[in-house]
Amino acid sequence: MQPGPIRHDWSRDEIVALFERPFNDLLFMAQTAHRAHFDANSVQLSTLLSIKTGACPEDCKYCPQSIRYDTGLEREALMEVEDVLAAARAAKDDGATRFCMGAAWRSPKDRDIPKLQAMIQGVRELGLESCLTAGMLSDKQASALADSGLDYYNHNLDSSPEFYGEVITTRTYEDRLETLAAVREAGMKVCCGGIVGMGETRSDRAGLLEELAKLQPHPESVPINNLVQVPGTPVDGLPPIDPLEFVRTIAVARIVMPASMVRLSAGREEMSDELQALCFAAGANSVFYGERLLTTENPQNAHDRELFARLGITPEAGEPGAVHAGHAAQQPSAAETAAA
Ligand code: SAM
Ligand code: DTB
Ligand code: SF4
Q1: What's the CA-to-centroid distance between 98 and ligand 2, angstroms?
Q2: Which 3 state secondary structure label does DSSP give 132?
Q3: Which of 136, 300, 302, 337 has the greatest number of C-beta atoms within 10 Å?
Q4: Which atom of ligand 2 is nearest to the CA of 62?
Q5: How many C-beta atoms surround the C-beta of residue 26 within 10 A?
Q6: Ligand 2: distance of its center to the CA of 89 in Å?
Q7: Taking the chain, what is the end-to-end CA distance rounded to the nearest angstrom?
Q8: What angle do CA 245, 250, 253 make, to 5 degrees?
């Protein structure tokens, strides 16, 4: 099967039809797309740090950090630069190549920008890629962050346009697209994905991927989060998504955005090793690495390292990125080389 061109015109029906493919056919298509653009046995590791925690005015129904839900989370003010850099150094020592700082804001205040810039500069001086997620940005704020060397800005579309309003009412889909446009305009890479397991339909999951694939260029990173249910949030107690439907979502993301890093994001702590292995087989090639996400648990580093070793997956060293199309497909895996 030849890899197709990068497309931005996937229709909802086409994407739903991918979801409906027999599981093995879908995984084969996803593997083909993955191997055309990447080493299929490599995973990129990003470590998260919550640099400002809780008391967020937004009403995202999944989020433990919204001030509207009583989740027992203790709020914390914006961290000091040196404390953030100590965490970044530890992440680097543990093998991460990207450090992602998350702030529970609707949008940053202009007075916070210099401190964020110092954090970004420090992270880059450590030789790590920098990523920030801090809510909506004005064009001026996006330029200021880009000027300080920010590599990626994370801002998710979260779900389909029609389901979005069931989850968040305090900012619109259009607001999100405007921030994404500001990030692109400022020359930064885009990290944009969504969250599943909130009672959305398959068509909503397809709609999220349709909107992501419409972005030109595609987001360089596409985090797919499985809802981590937190007591006190309105979505706590919903029936979880069928794990195989989650794998399908990863596979379809890989097919419609073949050259993007697809990140198996929140929810790994609740997944078996075997389910995660299926996600890697479906084309996930990035994870959040470190024992905490922002406020919830993530697998232990030692457990992750053992899982990667069992799967013959190598954490990416240094600068991550796609290998040339048509080249990776021919590359033998480490296991094949060893067996030869
Ligand atoms: N406040 C910023 C914003 O919303 O853009 C940044 C942080 S926010 C925590 C980033 C993303 O994390 C959300 O868009 C959502 O996809 C994901 N997320 C938040 N809470 C989650 C949860 N309980 N389970 C899974 N993913 C979650
Ligand atoms: C993303 O898509 N997922 C990350 C990151 N971007 C910032 C956040 C996951 C948060 C999970 C819930 C928590 O730990 O608070
Ligand atoms: Fe605030 Fe972001 Fe959580 Fe929404 S997802 S409540 S904007 S921290």
Answers
A1: 15
A2: strand
A3: 136
A4: 12
A5: 20
A6: 20
A7: 25
A8: 120
